[in-house]
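Hey team,

Filing this mostly as a record. A colleague (T.K.) asked me to run one chain through the structure pipeline before their review meeting, and I want the input and output archived in the tracker in case anyone asks later how it was produced. No errors, nothing strange. Just documentation.

Input sequence:
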Amino acid sequence: MKLDFSVAVHSLLYLDVHRDSKVSSRELAQSLHLNPVMIRNILSVLHKQGYLTGTVGKNGGYQLEMALADMNLGDLYDLTIPPTISYARFITGPSKTDEQVNQSAIAANISETLTDLFSVADRQYRVYYHQFTMADLKRDLDHHGYFLAQEDAGSTDL
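Output structure:
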């Protein structure tokens, strides 16, 4: 899976803590232990969608524009992990371009079968994430176990 969703979530939470100041991509990169270019690419997407503001230059940086409660996790997931993500790296068997005369029935069909399975799981992830906001995620960050406690309590509506 791509890191984009995790980077977006981490960055937004970091910006929330530092709401009163501008945060550079270098500072965010140090917090995330990633390259500042990768951070800027993802923050550019978040900026275009109104999650944050950003300015360039010596005194530039990023600031959160929206409240965490107004940021739906499902929307962030959809924004950062496209539904058309390729599952090719998770699948065994020949590629569609391989022309093998004596393929087994499994080898001939496993790619499509696993792609179907991963596609269904991805749709379920998206539905699940749409139940939560970034405020819910922050609640778990502040009091780890929030999501697990809700599950243990049998709650389907967090």
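Quick notes for T.K.: The chain has seven helices and two strands. Helices lie at 4-17, 25-32, 36-48, 73-80, 105-129, 134-142, 146-152.
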